[in-house]
Amino acid sequence: MANQVEHQQPAPKKPRLVFTDLQRRTLQAIFKETKRPSKEMQVTIARQLGLEPTTVGNFFMNARRRSMDKWKDEDPKNPGVDEGQLSPSLGISPRQATDVL
Q1: Dihedral sign, Cα of residue 47, residue 48, residue 50, residue 56
Q2: Can you give the pLDDT at residue 75?
Q3: Using the 8-state DSSP alphabet, how is residue 85 labeled?
Q4: CA-closest candidate to residue 37, choices 12, 57, 17, 54
Q5: Cβ(42)–Cβ(57) below 8 Å
Q6: What fold characterizes domain 21-72+93-100?
Q7: In terms of pTM, does the model score above 0.70?
Q8: CA 51, 56, 60: angle at the middle one, nearest 5?
Q9: Residue 99, SS3?
C-alpha cells in the first residue's frame, strides 16, 4: 500500500478575466503611448484600475504580440491602411488616460 501514488485533483482553473470597458480603453490608450511601461508604471496602472500587476503586464505583452502580428499581416505592396481597417476610436485621448492614473 505504501507504493500507491495519491492522485490529487488539479486546482480548478481561474475563470478568464474580462476587462471592463474603462480598463480596456485605458490600457489601450496607454499602450498607444508606451509599448513597454516600467514595472513601477505597471503597478501604478494596476492599482488605479483594480487589477493585478501580472494582469497588466500580460496585457502589454499580448498587445505587443498582437501589434507585431498585425504588422506582419500587412500587405508589403500596400503599406497604407484603408479606412475600413481602422479600429473605432477609443473615445479617450492619451492625456485622459494619464489623468486616470
Answers
A1: negative
A2: 56
A3: G
A4: 57
A5: yes
A6: Arc Repressor Mutant, subunit A (1.10.10)
A7: no
A8: 160
A9: helix
Rounded to whole angstroms, the Cα distance separating 2 from 32 reads 59
Closest listed residue to residue 34, CA positions, set 87, 100, 96, 94:
94
pLDDT at 82 over 50: no
Q: State the cell numbers at 70.
A: 498585425
Decide if 90 contacts 25 (C-beta within 8 A). Answer: yes
Q: How do the domains of the chain map onto residue ranges? A: 21-72+93-100
How many residues comprise the chain?
101
Kindly report, residue by residue over 22-79, the tens digit of the pLDDT: 999 999 999 999 999 999 999 999 999 999 999 999 999 999 999 988 787 775 655 5
Please report, in angstroms and rounded to a whole number, the separation of the first and last CA atoms in the chain.
Answer: 59
| Res. 93: pLDDT tops 70 | no
**Nearest in space to 22 (alpha carbons), one of 43, 53, 52, 45:** 45
C-alpha cell at 74: 500587412
pLDDT at residue 47, as a whole number: 98
